[in-house]
């Protein structure tokens, strides 16, 4: 929008400059050719009358010479061009474009979710809501961003986030919920304002600092979501599983049925084999739900998909069998010291350090800001800093920076000085995850994913996200559109890329689901897959 206003301003400046220059020329010309002395302001009045075609004639009796008449003719033609050409071709379109670029300031949506404001973390939540057919509208105080969202077909309105008028324009009183994800201070203001408008509106606040959670509840928030802490704990848990053969970080659906994801280490027993060659299915009786190969999720790994040290297996089965499989994912080489370097000591980094300490694992922290708990002040992209932190002698590095570009660069640097170390990374935007894997990271989890899943689990009825803190998504959901049909008939893997791993029927958990399994009305399905696959399933089944 600023671009168009700049063009309008430049056009006006050019017109005024032309008027002032013509006034000087006319004043000088009348003195030189006609011997008439006039003030600059008299000349300026004539030029304005000539260019605007408003009429003139007071000076016509003095135009005796050819140069003067040619000068007046030139001014008249310039005025005609300005009025009949420049105005419709330049000025009018510019003003039309400027008016078209006005951001929307209200919405007609009802029974929707109001989201304050739009951030890169919002994309995952938006996709979850769209899959469940839940309408939503963003509120943001950046008019250019709102215009851009509106052009992309995303409902968004412009306004001050903590003002009652803005929330009324967003139909907050008719909404099913309001989500505020800005910063802790502004979130509190939004909560107070929204609660004044409606005592029944469900308000969900995304909190950074755990200490302010109680204040947000006191202000009126119904639900508090802390994705940064959950993300830090999850990254740390991945580091603990990397240094132990013990099975951890699992989802226990019953005493005899567990779902987990396993990171395959370099030089482990599984590296270089396909799923059929590994015997995971046939000999161990484990269901392979899917696998990530260099960041790409494959729902049904085939004979061409070879396990390497970047592979993450999503598996389900008996805990004893999964424990045996876990031992096969650990490197057969001599184990390195159980020491983890944590790069970044914000909310995510602190949660990671606390989780590692609870497991008895030694940590060494790096941050650019000196604070209690920081072992060395510096950048994780600086080789001397990394060497001082003992990266070359450690088992894992957990990167928790809030800048994806810096984290990707740090991954490249670390892999150069310590090629065998495992790098577990926080990403902020899901679109950057493939870049992390190409840079050499072994495990990547994005803040957008964790935030979106945690919010979706609160906002979407009949859907519970069981794994907000893992690369795969496991949901418990009803499937009304699939009632009376068999899994073989629906063929969900082919249609959506996800797998129905179990079904809850009354008090019974059914896990051995073949293609002949028929979905009943009161069944609750437990479905696993990537975020995209789960969203496709929800769109098909609900």
From TrEMBL:
Q: Name one GO biological process term.
A: potassium ion transport
The name under which this protein is listed is Trk K+ transport system NAD-binding subunit
Q: Does the keyword Methyltransferase apply?
A: no
GO MF, one term, reads: monoatomic cation transmembrane transporter activity
Q: Which UniProt keywords apply?
A: Membrane, Transmembrane, Transmembrane helix
Which residue range or ranges hold the RCK N-terminal domain? Answer: 110-226, 337-445
Tell me the organism: Natrinema hispanicum
Ranges that cross the membrane: 39-58, 70-95
């Amino acid at each position: 929008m600023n671009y168009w206003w700049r063009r309008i301003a430049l056009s006006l400046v050019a017109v005024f400059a032309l008027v002032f220059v013509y006034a000087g020329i006319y004043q000088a010309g009348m003195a030189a050719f006609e011997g008439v002395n006039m003030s600059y302001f008299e000349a300026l009045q004539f030029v304005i009358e000539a260019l605007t075609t408003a009429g003139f004639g007071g000076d016509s009796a003095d135009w005796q010479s050819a140069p003067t008449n040619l000068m007046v003719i030139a001014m008249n033609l310039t005025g005609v061009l300005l009025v009949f050409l420049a105005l419709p071709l330049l000025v009018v379109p510019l003003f039309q474009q400027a008016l078209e670029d006005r951001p929307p300031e209200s919405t007609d949506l009802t029974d929707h979710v109001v989201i304050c404001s739009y951030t890169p973390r919002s994309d995952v939540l938006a996709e979850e809501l769209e899959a469940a057919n839940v309408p939503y509208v963003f509120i943001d105080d950046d008019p250019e961003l709102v215009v851009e969202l509106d052009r992309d077909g995303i409902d968004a309105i412009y306004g001050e986030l903590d003002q009652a008028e803005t929330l009324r324009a967003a139909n907050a009183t008719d909404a099913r919920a309001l989500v505020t994800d800005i910063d802790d201070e502004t979130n509190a203001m939004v909560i107070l304002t929204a609660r004044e408008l409606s005592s029944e509106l469900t308000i969900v606040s995304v909190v950074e600092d755990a200490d302010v959670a109680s204040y947000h509840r006191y202000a009126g928030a119904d639900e508090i979501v802390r994705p940064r802490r959950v993300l830090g704990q999850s990254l740390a848990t991945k580091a603990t599983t990397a240094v132990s053969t013990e099975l951890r970080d699992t989802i226990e659906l019953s005493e005899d049925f567990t779902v987990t994801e396993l990171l395959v280490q370099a030089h482990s027993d599984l590296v270089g084999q396909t799923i059929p060659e590994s015997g995971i299915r046939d000999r161990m009786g484990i269901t392979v739900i899917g696998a990530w190969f260099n960041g790409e999720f494959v729902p049904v790994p085939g004979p061409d998909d070879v396990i390497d040290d970047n592979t993450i297996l999503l598996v389900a089965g008996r805990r004893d069998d999964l424990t045996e499989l876990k031992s096969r994912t650990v490197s057969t080489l001599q184990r390195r010291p159980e020491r983890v370097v944590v790069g970044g000591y914000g909310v995510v980094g602190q949660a990671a350090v606390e989780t590692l300490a609870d497991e008895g694992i030694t940590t060494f922290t790096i941050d650019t800001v000196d604070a209690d708990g920081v072992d060395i002040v510096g950048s994780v992209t600086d080789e001397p800093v990394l060497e001082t932190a003992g990266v070359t002698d450690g088992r894992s590095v957990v990167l928790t920076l809030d800048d994806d570009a810096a984290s990707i660069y740090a991954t490249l640097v670390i892999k150069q000085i310590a090629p065998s170390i495992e790098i577990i990374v926080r990403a902020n935007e899901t679109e950057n995850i493939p870049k992390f894997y190409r840079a050499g990271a072994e495990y990547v989890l994005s803040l957008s994913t964790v935030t979106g899943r945690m919010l979706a689990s609160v906002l979407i009825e009949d859907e519970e996200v069981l794994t907000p803190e893992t690369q795969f998504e496991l949901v418990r959901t009803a499937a009304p559109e699939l009632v009376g049909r068999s899994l073989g008939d629906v063929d969900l893997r082919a249609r959506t890329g996800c797998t129905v791993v179990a079904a809850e029927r009354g008090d019974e958990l059914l896990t051995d689901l073949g293609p002949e399994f028929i979905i009943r009305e009161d069944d609750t399905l437990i479905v696993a897959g990537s975020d995209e696959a789960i969203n496709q399933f929800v769109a098909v089944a609900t």
